Automatic annotation (TrEMBL):
<feature type="binding site">
    <location>
        <begin position="58"/>
        <end position="60"/>
    </location>
    <ligand>
        <name>AMP</name>
    </ligand>
</feature>
<feature type="binding site">
    <location>
        <position position="126"/>
    </location>
    <ligand>
        <name>Zn(2+)</name>
    </ligand>
</feature>
<feature type="binding site">
    <location>
        <position position="120"/>
    </location>
    <ligand>
        <name>ATP</name>
    </ligand>
</feature>
<keyword id="KW-0545">Nucleotide biosynthesis</keyword>
<dbReference type="InterPro" id="IPR033690">
    <property type="entry name" value="Adenylat_kinase_CS"/>
</dbReference>
<dbReference type="InterPro" id="IPR000850">
    <property type="entry name" value="Adenylat/UMP-CMP_kin"/>
</dbReference>
<keyword id="KW-0963">Cytoplasm</keyword>
<comment type="function">
    <text>Catalyzes the reversible transfer of the terminal phosphate group between ATP and AMP. Plays an important role in cellular energy homeostasis and in adenine nucleotide metabolism.</text>
</comment>
<feature type="binding site">
    <location>
        <position position="90"/>
    </location>
    <ligand>
        <name>AMP</name>
    </ligand>
</feature>
<dbReference type="GO" id="GO:0004017">
    <property type="term" value="F:AMP kinase activity"/>
</dbReference>
<feature type="binding site">
    <location>
        <position position="192"/>
    </location>
    <ligand>
        <name>ATP</name>
    </ligand>
</feature>
<feature type="binding site">
    <location>
        <begin position="12"/>
        <end position="17"/>
    </location>
    <ligand>
        <name>ATP</name>
    </ligand>
</feature>
<feature type="binding site">
    <location>
        <position position="153"/>
    </location>
    <ligand>
        <name>AMP</name>
    </ligand>
</feature>
<feature type="binding site">
    <location>
        <begin position="83"/>
        <end position="86"/>
    </location>
    <ligand>
        <name>AMP</name>
    </ligand>
</feature>
<feature type="binding site">
    <location>
        <position position="33"/>
    </location>
    <ligand>
        <name>AMP</name>
    </ligand>
</feature>
<keyword id="KW-0862">Zinc</keyword>
<protein>
    <recommendedName>
        <fullName>Adenylate kinase</fullName>
        <ecNumber>2.7.4.3</ecNumber>
    </recommendedName>
</protein>
Length: 207
């Protein structure tokens, strides 16, 4: 059975960046509600479209994301879970559907998060993350991996970033405290270089 890794962290903490590498190293699935929702932004649900929540930086209703995660975990032999659970009710649901081998929290200060998010650029073809200062592509606006066009995410404007960070404080910080209280949370210094963060994670998860 592949490793089952939960990666927690604020918007911009580096969950996506690290998950991509972890999925390769351990040959497991990268399960991310954010990417799944972005791929289905205009899907009609009884609550409205994902877009209507995401553009404001609000959480998409639990019923929608729980369904996505359940289906993805059923299909996976090992996974790194990124962007879920984001509130205590999602955390309870996750406990019902799976066990976890590692629970990691990427800790990054708020000022740094804002700078990372407003400067992030994402490949429109393969989803690889770049940053205008911290992680520049070889050629401006072009993906190193696949040559695709780099774009800014709709929710990476300063105003929406602030809202996402306040939604995180209110809803997701209690999830982190929940895993801390259970004694399973391992905190990782997310302000190091991406390679150093990755090394720290692998030290915890093991080979
Ligand atoms: P989601 O896509 O999950 O966004 P997020 O949690 O806000 O996190 P990000 O993807 O913005 O950041 P990240 O931690 O992946 O950082 P990254 O590696 O890109 O969710 C989006 C929306 O979907 C939500 O707002 C909500 O509406 C909805 N949603 C999703 N899941 C949901 C759920 N469970 N329930 C309800 N709604 C849900 O890095 C950021 C930048 O920093 C990049 O430019 C990167 O190059 C750079 N960087 C990374 N690491 C470093 C480093 N070590 N040093 C310097 N720069 C770095
Ligand atoms: Mg992400
Ligand atoms: Zn690409």
């Amino acid at each position: 059975m592949g490793k089952r890794i939960l990666l927690l962290g604020a918007p911009g903490a580096g969950k996506g960046t690290q998950s991509k590498q972890l999925a390769e190293k351990y040959d497991i699935d990268h399960v991310t509600t954010g990417d799944a929702l972005r791929a289905n932004k205009d899907m009609e649900t009884e609550y409205g479209t994902p877009r209507s929540f995401m553009e404001k930086g609000e959480l998409v209703p639990d019923a929608v994301v729980n369904e996505i995660v359940k289906a993805a975990l059923e299909d996976a032999d090992g996974y790194v879970l990124d962007g879920y659970p984001r509130n205590l009710s999602q955390a309870e649901y996750l406990t019902e559907i799976t066990d976890l081998d590692a629970v990691l929290y990427l800790k990054v200060a708020e000022d740094e998060l804002v700078e990372r998010l407003t400067g992030r650029r994402v490949c429109s073809e393969c989803g690889t993350n770049f940053h205008v200062k911290f992680n520049q592509p070889e050629e401006e606006g072009v993906c190193d991996e696949c040559g695709g066009e780099l774009v800014q995410r709709d929710d990476d404007t300063e105003e929406t970033v602030r809202e996402r960070l306040s939604v995180f404080e209110e809803n997701t910080q209690p999830v982190i405290e929940h895993y801390r209280d259970e004694g399973v949370l391992v905190e990782i210094d997310g302000e190091q270089t991406p390679d150093d963060v990755f090394e720290d994670i692998v030290d915890v998860v093991g080979e």
